[in-house]
Amino acid sequence: MNLDFSQILPSLPFILKGILVTLQFTLLSAILGFTLGTLLSLLKISNLKPLRWFAEFYTSIFRGTPLILQLALMYFATPQLTGYKITPIEAGVITFALNSAAYSSETIRAGIMAVDKGQREASMSLGVPYKLMMLDIILPQAFKNILPALVNESIALLKDSALVSTIGVLDLMRRAQVVAGQTFLYFEPLIVVGVIYYIMVMGLTQAAQVLERRMRRSD
Amino acid sequence: MIRIEHLVKSFGDLEVLKDISTEVPTGQVVAIIGPSGSGKSTLLRCINLLEIPTAGHVFIDGMDITSPKCDILKVRQNIGMVFQHFNLFPHKTVIENLTYAPIKVRGLSKADASKLGLDLLAKVGLSEKANEYPSRLSGGQKQRVAIARALAMEPDIMLFDEPTSALDPEMVKEVLDVMKALANTGITMAIVTHEMGFAREVADRILFLDGGYLVEDAPPEVFFSSPKSDRAQQFLEKVL
C-alpha cells in the first residue's frame, strides 16, 4: 500500500473551495430549519387541535422517510411536477431545512415546555402580549436550555450535507469524488475531505462552547 | 375597585371556588387567609384571569373582565401581581426586569423607564443591584425586585400570592416592610398570606376562605378576636 498525496496536491485548491459550499449550505439550512422548527414547535403547543395535528403529521413524514429519498424527490420531482427547473443547491437547502425543522421542532417544543410556567404567568400579569412573551421571555430561555441539542443538530446537518453530492452539488464530498475520478486515487482525496469535515465539526463544537459560556452569564 | 359576583371555578370535577361574591373598594387592603386548598390563590388568580372563572363575573373598575369583549391585556397592565416564587426573568438584569414591560407594553422611552425603574429600586432598597442578574440575589431581594417590577407598570391594584412563603424566615421581614410601606400609599391590595401578624397589622379587611366558600369577611380586629364561624375558630387556634 502506498499513499501519494502529492498527486492530488494540484487539486487541493479545488477541494478547499468545497469548504465554503458546504459551510454556506449548512448555515443556510440550519437558519431556515431552526426558524421553521420554531414555528412548528409553536403549532405543537397551540390550543388549536388542527394546528397540532398538522405539525405532528409534518414531523412524522420527515422523520419517517430517508433523507436521501426526500432529497431525490425534491430535486428530480419538482421539475416534473411544477415545471420549475430547481437547482441542486436550492433542492438541497429546501430539503435539509424542511427535514431539520421536523427534528428541531421536537427539541424546541421540549425546551419551551421546560421553561417554568411562572415565566409565562409573570409575563401575562404584566400585560405582555403572547408574541412578545414568546420572543423576549420564553424562547430565549428555551434556546439556552436546548443549545447543546441544537449544536448536535447543526453537526448532523453539516455531515449529512455530504448527501447533496448525490444530486450534483459541488460540495466537499463531491469535489473529492471528482478529484478521485480524475486521478484514479480514491484514498487520498477522501481522507483529505474527511479531515476537513472533522476540523469543521470540532470548530463548531468549540464555537458552541464559547456561546454557551456567554449565555450562562446570567446563572 | 374589584367586584366579584357569584364566582365559581372548577378544575375538571373539582370545584375549587363555590359561588364567591365580594367587593374590594379602591385603596383597601384585604388579606385572604385560610387553610391550604381552600381556594385562596385561585380566587386571587381569577382577578387578573390567570385562571379563567367557570362561572360568575369579575369587575375591575366597573368593567366585566370575564366578558369576551374585554381586552384582558389592557386590564392586566393595571393589576400588578407578585408570586410566591418571584418569577423574575432570569435572562434579564434587575433593571431590565423592571423596564421590560414599561417599554414594550406601556410604550415608555428607555430613558423614562430606566428612571422609573431606578426610583422603584431605591424604594425597595436595592439600587446597587440594578445591573445584577436575579440569580445573584437572595430570596428576599428577588421578591423586592418582583414587587418593584409589578409597580413599574404603575398599577392601581396589586395582587400578592403568598409573597413570603418561599422565603427563609430572616428574609420575610424585609419583604413585609416593603408591602407595609406600599399599603400606606393608597393602592388597592389583595394579599394571600399565612403571615397572621402581618394581616392583622396591615389589612383593612380579612377574607377567610374554607373549602371554596367565603366563610368570613370582617375587619382584622373582629376576625382575630372573635371569629364567628367554627371553622375560622379552629383555624386560628392552630395558626396563632
How is this structure best described in words?
The complex is a heterodimer of chains A (219) and B (240). Chain A is mainly alpha-helical. Chain A has helices at residues 12-44, 49-64, 67-82, 88-114, 117-125, 130-160, 172-183, 187-215. In chain A, helix 1 runs antiparallel to helix 6 (130-160) and helix 6 packs antiparallel against helix 8 (187-215). With 240 residues, chain B is an alpha/beta fold. Helix content of chain B is 38%, strand content 25%. In chain B, the strands form 2 sheets. Chain B has a 6-stranded mixed beta sheet with strand order 6-7-8-3-9-10, sandwiched between helices. A 4-stranded antiparallel beta sheet of chain B has the order 2-1-4-5, with helices on one face. In chain B, helix 3 crosses helix 4 (110-123), helix 3 (94-104) packs parallel to helix 5 (139-151) and helix 4 (110-123) packs across helix 5 (139-151). The radius of gyration of chain B is 18 Å and the shape is globular. Chain B starts with a strand and ends with a helix. The chains are: A mainly alpha (219), B alpha/beta (240).
Q: Within the largest sheet of chain B, what's the order of strands? A: 6-7-8-3-9-10
Contiguous low-pLDDT stretches of chain A (5 residues minimum) are none
Helix content of chain B: 25-40%
Proportion in helices of chain A: over 70%
Q: From the helix content, strand content and strand pairing of chain A, which structural class follows? A: mainly alpha
Summed over residues and divided by their number, the pLDDT of chain B gives a mean of 95
Order of helices and strands of chain B: EEEHEEHEHHHEHEHEEHH
How many runs of DSSP E, i.e. beta strands of chain A? 0
The structural class of chain B is alpha/beta
The major pleated sheet of chain A works out as: none
In angstroms, what is the radius of gyration of chain A?
Answer: 21 Å
- Separation, N- and C-terminal Cα atoms of chain A: 55 Å
Unreliable runs of chain B, pLDDT <50, ≥5 residues? none
Average pLDDT level of chain A:
93
Distance between the termini of chain B: 31 Å
Tell me the strand percentage band of chain B.
25-35%
Morphology call of chain A: flat
Largest sheet of chain B: 6 strands, mixed
CA gyration radius of chain B, whole angstroms:
18 Å
